[in-house]
Design a protein that fits this description.
18-stranded mixed β-sheet; 22 strands; alpha+beta; 319 residues; four-stranded antiparallel β-sheet
Length: 319
């Protein structure tokens, strides 16, 4: 359950400096609880949010929070991206999941075993692409270490059996599609014999209400399109672990105002936080990859009139 971070009334008898400390503590309480929960689960969780092209969210127990780098995902969690957004997830065996824009991805079940200490891991998971674009790629170091995996990706009308490969898929109201880049996957649908895609560029698609056709071969233009749909776009609002730039959305005279803006940004898919600065409260988004990414996020915030961000600035993390 996501914690609530709304500040409470402040005692009138406190000094201004004490009020600042008290309000800041309340503002950071929710974020601190979230971080501590993530740390407690790190030993059993096997998927981490590594990078996001904002805005995007993680949904847990029906509650949605802006996605941010380092958050650990567990079974039943959803990862959700908005238009022109992306998300990169890394599983415990180092394999990578990339989500394109307007995607909703659910981890249904997730189990990690390590039969021998310091030995290879065995990863088993059932994943669901509710809608949008998905790409999966096995890490070569994971292969060298002998890690094993048994993953199934459910889509609207088909299930893809994954054993270690690099492929793309998408699902929406009109069709399901799978394209193989390297390795092999098996597509199973309606209790029919599985369709094996085991050559680079092998492509399968089924349209809603239409008869299923045999798998074919994607064209070079199609391959380029598929790859681009799940790749991060530099300078378009990327946050990642270790990012050194920040977007400052506002400097507020009161903690209540800062809390309200932070909540609005979180709801909109931006991982905002609040810090005390010279007796005021700064609302900021950290870990942006480059100055261009920070500027892109500031433009996004200013373009959304409902957020009320009219000024703002960008800065290096040290400033």
């Amino acid at each position: 359950m996501f914690p609530s971070a709304a500040p409470t009334a402040l005692p009138a008898a406190r000094s201004p400096r004490s009020l600042v400390r008290h309000t800041l503590g309340l503002l950071l309480l929710g974020a601190g609880l979230w971080a501590s929960q993530g740390t407690a689960r790190a030993a059993t969780s096997s998927t981490v949010v590594e990078a996001i092209q904002l805005p995007a969210w993680v949904e847990r127990n029906g509650q949605r929070r802006a996605a941010e780098p380092g958050v650990q995902l567990r079974a039943t969690d959803k990862a959700i991206t908005a238009g022109n957004a992306r998300m990169l997830l890394r599983m415990s065996d180092r394999s990578v999941i990339k989500l394109g824009e307007n995607s909703e991805f659910l981890i249904e079940t997730l189990t990690v075993r390590q039969p021998q200490a310091a030995g290879p891991t065995e990863l088993s998971a059932t994943l669901r692409l509710v809608t949008g674009v998905f790409r999966y790629a096995t890490d070569y170091s994971s292969k060298a270490l002998g890690n094993k995996r048994e993953l199934n990706l459910k889509m609207a009308t088909a299930t893809v059996g994954i054993r270690g490969t690099d492929f793309w898929s998408m699902t929406d109201a009109e069709h399901d599609a799978v394209c193989m880049f390297e390795g092999k996957v098996e597509v199973v649908r309606d209790n029919k014999p599985g369709i094996m895609l085991d050559k680079p560029g092998a492509f399968w698609v089924v349209f809603t209400g239409e008869p299923e056709k045999p798998a074919g071969q994607a064209t070079p233009d199609q391959l380029a399109k598929f790859i681009g749909q799940a790749e991060m776009q530099p300078g378009q609002g990327i946050v990642l672990q270790g990012g050194q730039w920040r977007t400052v959305a506002g400097l507020m005279p009161s903690g209540i105002q800062a809390s309200n803006l932070r909540s609005a940004l979180q709801t909109a898919g931006y991982p905002a936080e609040v810090i005390s600065k010279s007796g005021k409260f700064e609302v900021r988004i950290n870990q942006l990859a480059t100055r261009e990414d920070a500027e892109a996020v500031l433009k996004q915030l200013q373009a959304n009139a409902a957020l009320g961000v009219t000024d703002g600035r960008v800065a290096l993390a040290a400033r």
